[in-house]
Amino acid sequence: MAGRFAPRPTRATVRGGHVGVPTVASAGIPRQSAGPAMVRRWVPDGPLDLGLTVGPLRRGPADPTFRAAPDGSVWRACRTPAGPGTLRVRAYGGEVLGEAWGPGAAWLLDGLPALLGAADDPDAFVPRHRLLAQTRHRRPGLRLTRTGLVLESLIPSVLEQKVTTVEAYAAWQTLVRRYGEPAPGPVPGRMYVMPAPRTWALIPSWDWHRAGVDDKRASTILRAVRVAARMEEAAGMEPEAARARLEVVPGIGPWTSAEVVQRSLGAADAVTVGDLHLPGIVGWALAGDRNADDAEMLRLLEPYAGQRHRAARLILLSGRVRPRRGPRMPVGDIGGL
């Protein structure tokens, strides 16, 4: 999901977690790579849309940890168990080239297939509504990513709690640029690896406030990074066990845990509940009900048990969104908190 309160799509984004990656006409991946890098080539076993698959990992158009380049490549700067690393991914003619730099390079390349949905099974989804069948036909390259990293999804998801995505993205950008470290390798523009857990723990209260983060969300992040190793262990669990592990931390509830396991584990059934807009979007798309709540959304998605997150993403990608009636959520002011 793109976030709890999604802004209007721009030319660079589409609801449902898509990044516009330019199509590059080529019979194959160039045999030369730029700069000293570790390299891995991989051939997917079916259609792969790079922008659709990794799009949910980008936190806004100016995310300092993510870039979609004009040459059709996607760049990610990550803090891996082996250290900071940068990954560049290009897909041409049915083949994928991954290039990586930094101490985490080998770890990133080992996880390249999972990142691009190798562990996902799109054929397990059986559409029972015409809208979803049509959307899947138009988007055959949708795969559910699996990063194997928990904190990189958990922290921005906490920042998105009960605020607009514009505010959350701005906070993420501000804190990563100020406290992260430059991404290794020949990155496009200024890219940063997110701060280490200890660095998050040492951010002073005034810098949280300057970034627009209230005390409740900041405290949740601080509690999570104090048990960072336990949080990262969730990447090796089944989705329900992983969610239970995350929700032990006060301030992390079902909405946040679902957002995390969708990305870190590629959890196809982790439907997001507690979202302001998603129940109405699902209700409108599947039943013409603009006032659907979480219970009604789950009822409508029940035929897709085991694949409810994929169904929700296809609905978001379909473009069938209920007409807005009412004001958007105002941008908050934490000055008095």
Beta content comes to 5-15%
Number of helices: 15
Helix/strand order, N-terminal first: EEEHEEEEHHHHHEEHHHHHHHHH
Q: What is the mean predicted local confidence, pLDDT?
A: 89
CATH topology: Endonuclease III, domain 1
**CATH structural architecture:** Orthogonal Bundle
Kindly give the count of domains: 1
CATH superfamily: Hypothetical protein, domain 2
- Radius of gyration over all CA atoms, rounded: 19 Å
Helix content: 25-40%
Task: Indicate the low-confidence ranges by residue numbers.
Answer: 1-15, 29-35, 333-337
Separation, N- and C-terminal Cα atoms: 28 Å
Which structural class best describes the helix and strand composition? alpha+beta
What's the β-strand tally? 9
Form type: globular
Query: What is the CATH domain class?
Result: Mainly Alpha
Taking the sheet with the most strands, its summary is:
5 strands, antiparallel
For the biggest β-sheet, the strand order reads: 3-7-6-5-4
